Amino acid sequence: MAPSFHNGGSLFDFVVKDGNGVKGMVDAGLSEIPERYIQPPEERINKLDANPNVPTPIDLSELDGPHHDQVVEALAKAAETLGFFQVVNHGVPVELLERLKDSAHHFFNQPPEKKAVYLKGVSPSPFVKYETSFVPEMEKALEWKDYVSMVYTGDADAIKYWPEKCKESALEYLKTSTEMVRRILEVLLGKLGVTLDNSMCDRYIGTKMVNMNFYPTCPNPELTVGVGRHSDMGTLTVLLQDGIGGLYVKVEDEGGAAGRKDEWIEIPPIPNALVINVGDTLQILSNGKYKSAEHRVRTTSMQSRVSIPIFATPRPMDKIGPLPQVVEKDGVARYREFLFEEYMNNFFGKAHEGKKSLDFAQITSP
Ligand SMILES: O=C(O)CCC(=O)C(=O)O
Ligand SMILES: [Fe+2]
């Protein structure tokens, strides 16, 4: 008999604790979403809200050619405004992009017991976790998403501990994208008058985590979300999405009229492109010049969707705060200094709530 998904307690155990995930719930047969997944009206995503005005992708290979200056301007402008852009000719082999999406499907299509071995508490490594939603214990409405996350702690660990179905492609993705991430950061910090050296690289993008996100088909996409409104905590995020669509980014309202409706832009799937977004850490480093992007994901009733982000973040023991050169120029520090571990604890200690994560570091004017 299919479990009853209208009883809150057993649903939570089945999906979260026993590791069946949203996928297990959908596979058990479901004609409508359980109450626990119904978002309050203001959090639901109306597909028609999306603004069709989407910037064209940036060709990173042109950083080495005669259009270098224009590409630098385009990267900086995107980071200062939307906090999101897409790149092509990024150096990650396009054939690998296809393999990554296949590996994500292979991992999630396994029976639940094969995935449950990576649940928190039983996973063979604290750096590999199979989870569902964001912080299920803290959320009033759960997110329609299962995922596996793999923190890079060296090749040997990755080969030993990362799931068989995804380790090869995930490791190659991580390695082939590292140079691109460094290059983008170099350009963005360069525009602030800061030269990126090796030790800064270690400090600002020294930890890399690859996630594989799986959004099963959903009977009521209009009532729930794949991922709720949030910004990423790190410096830069690289994201591979498949062709389904559903990723939305909020257009920052520059002190516009009160009560104005939020405007969201869909980041459309572009074959062979990668999506890059600014995280909270880069907003803080740049003293607010670059904007971490508030984004969210819609689900669909048609097909399951996969996306594969790499989060490039500081290491837990790194001290983070606005770059001194920028503070000097600005005459004021808008964020305080903190250990990145403290930022992480705050970030993972609460449900998604837009850019509230930045409040932790914000210096409020007296
Ligand atoms: O699935 C997506 O397109 C975005 C996922 C995301 O925002 C995240 O994993 O932080
Ligand atoms: Fe995100």
Automatic annotation (TrEMBL):
SUPFAM superfamilies: Clavaminate synthase-like. It comes from the Eukaryota. Belongs to the iron/ascorbate-dependent oxidoreductase family. One of its GO terms (molecular function) is dioxygenase activity. Gene3D superfamilies: B-lactam Antibiotic, Isopenicillin N Synthase, Chain. The keyword Iron applies. Pfam families: 2OG-FeII_Oxy, DIOX_N. This is Fe2OG dioxygenase domain-containing protein. GO terms for biological process: coumarin biosynthetic process. Residues 206-314 form the Fe2OG dioxygenase domain. Its cofactor is L-ascorbate. PROSITE patterns: FE2OG_OXY. Keywords: Dioxygenase, Iron, Metal-binding, Oxidoreductase.
